[in-house]
Amino acid sequence: MAAQSPAREALNRAIAANKANGHENLGALSEEFGFIPATRPLERLPASHSQWDDLAHQLPSLHLTLGLRQAVEKMATLDASAGHLPDEFLSRAALVLSTIAHAYWWVEPEAPDELPECLSKPWEQVSARLGRPEAFMPYTDVFLYNWRASKDCTASDLKLERLEVLVPTFGNAAERIFLLTQVEIHAHCSAIVGAVVRAQEAVIADDPHKLGSELLSIVDCLNHITNYSLLKIDADPYSPTYVDPVVWSKTIARYAVPIKEGIQGPSGTASPLFQLLDIFVGRNQFNSPLGQAALQSRKWLALNHVQFLDAVEQVSIRDYVRECSDPKIKGLFQSVLEAYVGDTGFLGAHRLKAYGFLETAFKMGRTSEYLDSHTRIKDRGWECYHAQLAQSRLERLEGAPTHCQFGQIVSSEATTASADDQVKSVIINTKDAGIRFEPGDRVGIFPENSPELISKTLKALKATGAENIRLDGPWKSTWPSISGNHADSLPLADLLRYAKICPVTRDSVQTLFKLTFNSRLQTILHRRNETQWELSGILEMLAKSGFDTRRLWKSEPWEPENICKLAPTSMFKMFTAASAMDGETDDTAQTLEITIGELEEQAGFYPSSTESEEFGEASSSITRSTWYQEEFGMFANGANLTLKVVHPTRFHLPIDAKTPIVMFASGPGIAPFRSFIQARSRMSQTGENWLFFGANNHDEFLYRDEIESYVSNGRLKFEIAFSAENIEAEWDNLSKQYKLVTGSPRFVSQLIESETIAAKIWDCIRTRSEGGLEASFYVSGSAGFAVSIMSALKSVVARFSGANDEMDAEEIGKVTLFRMVGAKRFMQYVYASYTPFDEDERTYQVSEIARHNSDQDGYWTVINGKVYDVTTYLNLHPGGNTILRFNAGLDATTAFESVQHHLNSEINAVLGMYQIGRVQQLNFANSWGVAVGAEGLRFVSLDSAHLSWVQFLYRLVEIENLIAVDLASLYEPLTQHDSGQKLTPLKLQMVMDTHLRFRHNCLDGAFSQDLHELWANSIGLCGPQENIQYMQADLKEIYGNSDADFVHKKTLSLRDEAVHLLSQEAESVERNTGIIQTILNHDLNYLASLKRIVSDCVRVFETYEHATATFGNEELLDTIRQIPAITKGYYESMANDLA
Amino acid sequence: MLIRDIMTVDPVLIDPDANLLRAAEIISLTEVTDIMVVGEGQKFIGVFSEGDILRAMLPNVDEIISAGGSLKDAFDFFSKKGQALRNRPIAPYIIRNAIAMRPNDNAAMAATAMMEKQIRRLPVVDGDRLVGTISRSDICRASVFGFTRYQPDPVVLEGSPL
User: Fold this and answer.
1) What is the CATH number of domain A6-395?
2) In terms of Cα–Cα distance, which of B43, B45, B52, B64 is closest to B24?
């Protein structure tokens, strides 16, 4: 018999050792449970050590009253040596002691000097006995050894809903969901341990087929945890598994921080599961700070885990796949990478989720470092950390084998009898692609330009197509994902085939404009009409005015006019799978079907003829027929296509097949529902499938035969509405077909609200506990269609809600919809519809936008110069409303792009539903002046002066948002016994932290430098007679005066006294609550006044634009002069009230 | 000290459609480093600076590597590239949002802008018309030696409040 593989041997050794020991102190490891303990975590220590259990049990209430440190200090120092505490209790002891230690350390704003001996001594003893280098809080203790489930649960049953936390620090919902979801993730991934071992065996035995099936099972595990488990940590307040980011930040996030420098904390990088996956995908780059942390954390793992990981690392799967000739294996390995590291893979989804939580934690986490001058909000620490997450994620892809998943078009047919074949069904052969997809998945196809378009472009370039073009950086790095090969140069014709030349990109038009200053290009840019031009059209136009278009391919790749820059690579075009895999027989997809048509134009490209009319040359601008020629040309029979399957996180069938589904589609939006119905019709028993379809006329009755066959065998309930023809469809039971009879035109929304259907819809909306069917709802269509469906559903709820007045009914409708979204029972696939440039589009001034960041004024936000009113979207945002509130009233472009939202066409489509206009562009006509700076005289442009005022205003808005979110959470229960109604000592302390944080960010010198610079710039432009030192000197005096000093001392002592409040009379708690209320009112008033003043300053620029210095000078300076006065007033009145 | 009292009133000009060879010629003949680009009726369009020719000629890392990778290759590339550029239009190199002075601005403003932005000569613009230039030496001459070479000519400042 051949020798065992290293991983198998290490696994067996670990299992044997744990069995022999009768405990898993060397590290839990098994095929059945993965890294989760195979025997249930202990719930009690022996009676001799019950003191620790008892204290741990009281942690939530000790937090509430801030009596925690006292209680810990009263403990006796127990002996944890082998003679006193048997081995099998060590894991439990380590969990309890580390939890108490961290709670002791972080409970109050100031960390203690050291842990009391009664805690530190046994903790060190236990850690040493477990073979740990030091006492620390391992991930495997605090997450994986900290749950309880009923005895009969197998690994796959260990779900959040069936688990309880053994040793909670706070006992709040956020903690429970955050901790237990990670248990669920590890439990679900337990199969990965076995799969990795078998994959190694397959590689050693050179058995690609066996490797393939192990890769598949890893993909399945990862997809499940990404799309189901991870989503349970949900920032949406209407979700049943809501984790309030504010509560999370103020409690759990802080407590996980290691209490000493250089000690490992329980972060995800410390989980053996992710270490294992890193090794499996062959990560070899650890340069990022998080990569370094991941390397470090291996040293802190348990012995069994270290040995197992080392054994897995001995055989490189990545290298084997690279050398493997089977495209399917390469495709499957690619799928593992996508499922783990990809944008919609586990780490991609994690990164998206982490952003919102991190921003909250950085803004209001209770770290004592908060009052350190390096951690002001303006330093935006979370963005830095977030960038590290992104960097670390991409490191895993470095050096991975390049592979493309290819498919061939089998057939491409019109879906209706009509000659106007605007909708086609395309079947793609994917036998060798090694892909898998689920109903509802998106399919990316890399577009190819038609030979006609290529030759037209070559003509405009005065080239033959054979010219060898050296590739620039972006082309070089993208080419492998298009072709599967590396290349340094390409023939011009090949480059044009995969380039974005129809329509031309805005960047390219901008570059060409800079080179030529052609006035027509300027018009195109100004009207954002570039989407109606092909590159060839633009080039021909320029050639007429003397531009030598050969420069594009004669120039070197780094020159701005080079063809590589002006014709960048296209991007994957996204479609939805319209078929389902046969789960019974297929391990990978044999074929894949998509529906293409008008609605798939997600890039927002919708040709019209206005531009050509304008210039009187129809030939050079894109016509509708060119577009369809291009769109459909690439789907010619037999064509080879580069594919990519992307799983959307929120568009899939319910896990429980018995759940009914209700689907709403318009036009080609029906595509994903074909895959839904196909998949469900292959299952033996499912809930009802109910499809609503909206068409203009009978020609658009797509997939009629298919629908009729589902209806006749009882797998589908179907409703259709024709909006532009006087017909209705009637089911004829004899012929098993729909008959079109005379009727009135209707929209789907009207159908929903009709008498008989509305009642049934209401049944589907209600949850099972309300006596309903609790169906899952899906909408697929244009943004307008989605809006109409949503409002129809709301009105159905309102009608049946039983509410007395209209207002109540409307509110119930809204909340019901929020709950459905929160429970992931309402999912949408929305396409953008193109809106042409509108001269009359409303524009908004920054000073106006900044006002909209509250319930009263609504919530607006700016992304890339466009203004959005997201008030109604707050509770529909999958990432929760906290992050939207943080970004209200200001420019959120950075935040939006940090999470790659701008690259997601579906997100852009949803955003389009809320756009109300754009930001007014101001004209400063190059005006400038000279200001006094630190080095003497310096140059200051009016433009930059305005920008610095805007930035300052946005900072105030950001602080205002932060405080609003912070105070809104004041009455959220923070710990188990916290009713949330009353201020507890813990909360009093936190509120004082809020106040101190406010002062730290807004007063006590925080703004001195900014205000000084704003003053200096302003007098440089508007007030040559003014003294440069005025602002700084005044503020310095105010911050140092006796009122400020008194306020400072008094507030610090109030925070520290919170500890003693419990022992005092209720009356005194009330009095303190009153004082805090007063303090907060002063803070809010000051912030509001400052915002008003700064906003007025910005408005001066908005009013006078380039004449600001001439006509707005007095107004600007007078407004700024109010700042020292209100600052002085703040301290004065606060000191009065506190005295 | 006001700009109008010390500026040069007959600046060196170039047409926006000229090529780099023409620009190089003008610069070497006049020894003026920043020449003014004006359209019809003295309409100010921008500034063309000899620094921009040099900047266009200096090879970047990719170019140096493609030329062979050595310092010698880089130097050879530099001279070749200069010749290759001669027929290029100056249009893309024109600084169109140039920092400009007005005749009634103070000379200290010009000095500040020049030092901070490393510019040797600034256009003096009245409305959209070029009325002169102000250079570092104009300011030095006027302030250190205390005299101005050219008397301001009211005809030149047509349309200004003077």
Assistant:
1) 1.20.58.480
2) B52
- List every span in chain A annotated with CATH 1.20.990: 451-566
Which residue is listed with tokens 């007959």? B10
Token output for A504: 């031309």
CA nearest to B87 within chain A? A548
- The CATH architecture one would assign to domain A405-447+573-646 is Beta Barrel (2.40)
Q: Range(s) for CATH 3.40.50.80 in chain A? A: 661-831
Segment of A833-842, A922-931, A971-980, A1086-1095 carrying the highest mean pLDDT: A1086-1095
Candidate from B96, B99, B108 with C-beta closest to A937: B108
Q: How many CB pairs under 8 A join A and B?
A: 35
Structure token digits, residue B141? 């001459």
Domain A451-566 falls under CATH 2.40.50: no
pLDDT in tens, A384-434: 878 888 888 888 888 777 778 888 888 887 776 554 556 788 899 988 888
Residue B30, chain A, CB below 8 Å: the answer is no
**Cis status, amide bond into B123, omega within 30 of 0:** no
Give me the torsion for CA of A867, A871, A872, A873, rounded to 10°.
70
The CATH number of domain A661-831, selected from 3.30.230.10, 3.40.1010.10, 1.20.120.140, 3.40.50.80: 3.40.50.80
Residue A650's Cβ-count burial label (10 Å; 0-12, 13-18, 19+) is middle
Domain(s) of CATH 1.20.58.480: residues in chain A: 6-395
What is the β-pairing status of strands A858-863 and A866-869? antiparallel
pLDDT bin (cut points 50, 70, 90) of residue A609 is very low
Among chain B residues, the shortest Cα distance to A938 is held by B112
Q: Mind listing the pLDDT tens digit for each residue in A956-1008?
A: 999 999 989 988 877 777 787 777 667 777 888 888 888 888 888 888 778 88
- Binding-face residues of B in 34-63 toward A, CB within 8 A: 60, 62-63
Residues of chain A with CATH 2.40.30.10: 405-447+573-646
